[in-house]
Amino acid sequence: MKGGTVSFLFVLLISPSPPFSASVMGNFVNAGMLPNGDFELGPKPSDMKGTQVINKNAIPSWELTGFVEYIKSGQKQGDMLLVVPAGKFAVRLGNEASIKQRLNVTKGMYYSLTFSAARTCAQDERLNISVAPDSGVIPIQTVYSSSGWDLYAWAFQAESNVAEIVIHNPGEEEDPACGPLIDGVAIKALYPPRPTNKNILKNGGFEEGPYLLPNSTTGVLIPPFIEDDHSPLPAWMIESLKAVKYVDVEHFSVPQGRRAVELVAGKERKRDRSGG
Ligand SMILES: *[C@@H]1O[C@H](CO)[C@@H](O)[C@H](O)[C@H]1NC(C)=O
Ligand SMILES: *[C@@H]1O[C@H](CO)[C@@H](O)[C@H](O)[C@H]1NC(C)=O
Ligand SMILES: *[C@@H]1O[C@H](CO)[C@@H](O)[C@H](O)[C@H]1NC(C)=O
Predict the structure, then answer these.
(1) Index of the ligand 3 atom closest to the CA of residue 213
(2) Is 140 within 8 Å of 180 (Cβ atoms)?
(3) How many C-beta atoms lie closer than 10 Å to residue 134's C-beta?
(4) In the record, which residues are listed under signal peptide (predicted)?
(5) What CATH code would you report for 11-20+27-263?
(6) Which residues form ligand 2's pocket by a CB distance below 6 Å?
(7) pTM for this structure?
């Protein structure tokens, strides 16, 4: 068994009333990688200039904006060897670059997105993930895993039957090659849990939560979203300043059931927002 102490701290219970009934959920079973969510299908050589993708539709299932690079595992950046978590390929988002995918969903339903991200340069890298009208900015400055790649979760409620998922790098760094790497974008429909006669806390065992990539041993970080309406961990809201980690029994010590929440400590690079 790997992993640290399982803890239930720093999470505040909220109790939203379920906004829809079971009947409108439909039979939309959706948990897994998005189409080409691992970017294994790549651009044709004629759509590339070095590592840069120069045709916005060159990566199947995705639409690109701005300076997007197609990264192969083992590729070097300076003296750093880039490794990729899902398959052999990933993308890197330069300044103001984004990747977008349209997906059929069920209107009114809650979904959680899970994706891998890695920071490449020393800057304060962030990602803005959105499905209109919801959006959330995830700081990826703190690195929790030894590989440099962390999994993040973010949730939204589908406003229509099509979700336009956008992952955007709002950065404005001098070096356009400094930007987050993205890989393994997955989705899971969330079913707001109800209290049971065994546990009056909703989702008290954290069994309902974001998608965990089957091969990932690191768990999924759930960042605190101050203005977030929708939690990837139904019925719970992250109140700490730091992310909490959602873990599975396959890779961590979980006292009850299959899922738990762990308080984590990450490696912080020095950062002074006041600029001093
Ligand atoms: C998404 O929904 C539209 C309209 O219902 C349908 O035409 C299309 O085939 C669907 N796409 C996928 C990938 O299921
Ligand atoms: C994130 O992206 C959404 C959608 O483009 C936008 O509405 C929102 O203002 C962005 N947030 C930040 C902090 O840039
Ligand atoms: C998970 O690992 C197994 C064995 O290494 C591999 O065959 C499989 O393709 C991996 N799955 C994903 C989604 O990466």
Answers:
(1) 13
(2) yes
(3) 19
(4) 1-22
(5) 2.60.120.200
(6) 128, 130, 135, 137, 168, 170
(7) 0.81
Nearest CA to ligand 2 atom 13: 137
pLDDT tens string 158-216: 999 999 999 999 987 777 777 899 999 999 998 877 666 666 677 777 778 899 887 77
Both tokens of residue 73? Answer: 């595992």
Which pair of tokens denotes residue 160? 């229509």
CA of 215 to the centre of ligand 3 (A): 6
pLDDT beneath 50: ranges in the chain: 1-29, 268-276
CA distance 10 to 264: 11
Burial label for 125, CB within 10 Å (0-12, 13-18, 19+), is buried
What is the torsional sign of CA 140, 214, 84, 247? positive
C-alpha 223 – ligand 2 centre gap (Å) = 17
pLDDT one-digit tens code per residue, 231-251? 888 877 776 677 788 888 778
Distance, in Å, from the CA atom of 204 to the CA atom of 193, rounded to the nearest integer, reads 9
Distance 84 CA to ligand 3 centre (A): 13
Closest ligand, as measured to the CA of 38: 3
SS3 24: helix
